């Protein structure tokens, strides 16, 4: 008895096998890409820190802050008035980095919560002291109420 496979059945089996193989290959491809994305995402923070560190050490606090304002990661839609009178003698590197992050976080908070239409940043070095003001015309928050609780 000769059991020949019908050509249509053969074709269906071939297509089924090819689709199964493609599915496995696609899953492997997606898994590989997800691993790469996870790697990049998990290292973005350290890459950003390295770039910031390099810029701060090479260019100084003033240029690094000016670059932040130019890049405008918070999508602030009006000019920021910034005056920096700082010669890099008052703070050590770690404190400059902290000040940078304070300014960055302040701008982030202003852009998210203050509904401001103007921002002024003043950094003034005087007699081995450093004065920093970040002023906006936003809605603010009830300071007396917060201090009473």
Protein described:
By secondary structure, this protein is of the alpha+beta class. The chain contains four helices and three strands; from the N terminus they run ααβαββα. It has helices spanning 7-59, 61-71, 93-114, 143-148; strands spanning 80-85, 119-126, 129-136. It has a three-stranded mixed beta sheet with strand order 1-2-3, covered by helices on one side. Helix 2 (61-71) packs parallel to helix 3. The chain is elongated and about 100 Å long. The N and C termini lie far apart (93 Å). The model has no long low-confidence stretch (mean pLDDT 85).
Determine the N-to-C terminus distance: 93 Å
Mean pLDDT: 85
Supply the number of helical segments: 4
Strand order of the largest sheet: 1-2-3
**Spatial extent as radius of gyration:** 29 Å
Overall outline: elongated
Main structural class: alpha+beta
Number of strands: 3
Strand content of the residues, in percent? 5-15%
Please give the share of residues in helix.
55-70%
Write the layout of secondary structure elements.
Layout: H1 7-59, H2 61-71, E1 80-85, H3 93-114, E2 119-126, E3 129-136, H4 143-148
Parallel strand pairs: 1-2
Antiparallel strand pairs: 2-3
Helix pairs in contact: 1-2, 2-3
């Amino acid at each position: 008895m000769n059991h020949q496979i019908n050509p249509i059945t053969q074709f269906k089996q071939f297509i089924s096998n090819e689709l199964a193989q493609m599915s496995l290959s696609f899953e492997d491809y997606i898994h590989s890409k997800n691993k790469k994305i996870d790697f990049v995402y998990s290292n973005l923070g350290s890459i950003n820190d390295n770039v910031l560190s390099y810029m701060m050490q090479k260019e100084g606090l003033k240029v690094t802050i000016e670059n932040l304002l130019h890049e405008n990661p918070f999508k602030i839609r009006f000019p920021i008035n910034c005056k920096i009178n700082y010669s890099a003698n008052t703070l050590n590197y770690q404190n400059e980095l902290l000040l940078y992050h304070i300014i960055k976080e302040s701008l982030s908070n202003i852009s998210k919560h203050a509904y401001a239409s103007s921002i002024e940043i003043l950094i003034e070095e005087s007699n081995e002291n450093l004065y920093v003001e970040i002023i906006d015309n936003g809605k603010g928050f009830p300071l007396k109420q917060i201090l009473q609780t």
